[in-house]
Amino acid sequence: MNNTSNFKLLNDLWSVVDQKNKLIFFLILSLIGALTDAINIGLLIPFIKVIETPEILNSYSIYRALSELFSVTTSPRFFILISFVFFLFVSAVLRIYINWFTLKISYSISEKLASKIYEQVLNRNFLDHVKENTSKTISDVTFRVNATTSVLMAIVIIINNMILSLLIFSTLLYIDFSTVGSVILIIGIIYVVVTFLLRFRLNENSKIITKNQTGLIKTLQEGLGGIKEVILSSMQPFFVKEFSRSYSKLNKSLVFNNFFAQSPKVVIETLSILLLLSFFYYSFSQGKGIVELSGLIGVLAFGAQKLIPSFQAIYQNWSNITSNKFLVTEIVKILKNDSNNSIQKNPIYFQKELKLKFNSFSYSLEKDSVLNNINLKISKGEKIGILGPSGSGKSTIINLLVGLISDFRGTLEIDGKIVDNSTINSWRNQIAYVPQNVFLFDASLKSNIIFGSNNKEDISLKELLDQVKLNSFVGDRDIDNIQLGERASKISGGEKQRIALARALFKKASLIVFDEATNALDKKIEREIFEIIYNLNDITIIVISHDKQNLYGCDKVFEIKNKKIQEIEID
Fold first, then answer.
1. Which region among 44-53, 332-341, 461-470 has the lowest average model confidence (pLDDT)?
2. In Å, what is the CA distance from 548 to each residue of 250, 389, 436, 519, 551?
3. Exposure string (b/e) for 501-539, b if CB count within 10 Å is 16 or more?
4. More reliable by pLDDT, 413 or 178
5. Across residues 13-32, what is the average pLDDT?
6. CB 253 within 8 A of CB 319
7. What's the pLDDT at 340?
8. Cα gap 337→561, rounded to integer Å
9. Euclidean distance between the first and final Cα of the chain, in Å?
10. pLDDT grade, residue 293 (50/70/90)?
11. Domain segments of the chain: what residues?
12. Residue 339's pLDDT band (boundaries 50, 70, 90)?
């Protein structure tokens, strides 16, 4: 990770984020609120003076103008009281509304960012998914999105409080330049020194937070994903220890960052009280009256009550940006690489044959080739078998055929047309893929069958269930009410494969790939599944297997051996 400065990070983040208009509106609202606070402070001295000497109000030109315009007949004391209370009320209402709007826009930005990140993650190149750690991806969509939203709001809050501080500071300087100037200078120096001293530690903690948030998700996934092995091997203490270790490191960094983000406020408040008392003592010893000093100290105290929280907000939000820097950097990288925008959607139709041709293929320049001299032709409606030991390249050639790997030095042709970025989605939509570990989600049987299909149920689901021999499993039950459970835990392996087959048929796929789909089944159920597969008509079938006996119904069988593919005869 590079040590990006806070200013560059904020500039990059602003360039990729949506809803800038809402953030700007929030800033305008905040500025209006800041202005009303400054007016309140500015009214305090006249308020005190008018309470003491009402006639002095006539010396203010604005009062005379308003009196003539609105025919004001009330006493000066009542007028200044109403004015002061009015601006206090307006300021309070604005603050309440701003707090509500802050929460609303914060959650709105989080929602938009999370959805956009998730969309771009799903639209990544297949090989990027293979290389990427899923724990990091989950962390991107959860922890890092929240951190990014927090930083965005921090930008606006800092700008708002800087302007608020400037307005209040200017008002206080106008009232008493030397006293206010000295106090603000001391407070400012404290915040600058603390920020400078802690910047490296906050940066390092940001890296630790980024690493351990991903580590927490990784430990949870591994522990829950392999729960059978965990229980049988009594590995619970190991995963609890790993989880606690990551959580401990994460919490230590969070405690440090939050403590030093909030602590200066206590020091500043204490120091401000001491400075005000010192100012009162010194001024009184110089012969100034109690009434005069009380009014001035009241104004300074009221101003400090507004100013110190603003200084603290600037410091705390700047610390927040620094603490979340490396979390946000990852999100900015993803948002800058919008893969979905480059994908066009032109149709391509599989009616005659598909061809795959290339001289060699490797997953990276540093690695040896996986396959060489491939020239494969498959006609529409053929049933193709592909044999080969584990690691021979069976999955690679399927990934190339179905368009999961589209960037390679060769061509994939459908009816003479080369599949490229403009037609890749159209080709993928015509394919159904049935692996050994079928993807089923925690929903109804019907939802799992129609998943990923654009068909409007013009296929009878009852006939489809009969075709894949799921009718005995369903019985008289409503398929809308048959829940499969998390990871389809409520059904058997054979039923999973039949549901996957029903999904492929419901999709009306032109090509169905069975990738070692029956490996985990007993021979009887495996034979039943293959009988269904080989009785499918007008659909191109590719069956990948390490067992020749399962390819008895294929029109052609190819074997991958020594990085090459060749057609073979089977008994």
1. 332-341
2. 53, 11, 17, 13, 5
3. bbbbbbbebbbbbbbbbbeebeeebbebbbebbeebeeb
4. 413
5. 77
6. no
7. 45
8. 38
9. 58
10. low
11. 15-337, 353-568
12. very low
DSSP-derived 3-state class of residue 211: helix
- Whole-angstrom Cα distance, residue 10 to residue 95? 26
| 79: CB partners within 8 A, 6+ apart | 57, 63, 72
User: Which ranges in 226-289 belong to alpha helices (H)?
Assistant: 227-232, 236-285
Which residue is it, tokens 């991806």?
137
- 278 three-class SS: helix
Instruction: Give the number of other CB atoms < 10 A from CB of residue 406.
Output: 18
Region 14-33 average pLDDT: 77
DSSP alpha helices (H): ranges in 53-133? Answer: 61-70, 76-122, 126-131
Q: Which CATH superfamily is domain 353-568 in?
A: P-loop containing nucleotide triphosphate hydrolases (3.40.50.300)
SS3 of residue 75 by DSSP:
coil
What CATH number should be reported for the domain whose range is 15-337? Answer: 1.20.1560.10
Query: Three-state secondary structure along 522-560?
Result: CHHHHHHHHHHHHCCCCCEEEEEECCHHHHCCCCEEEEE
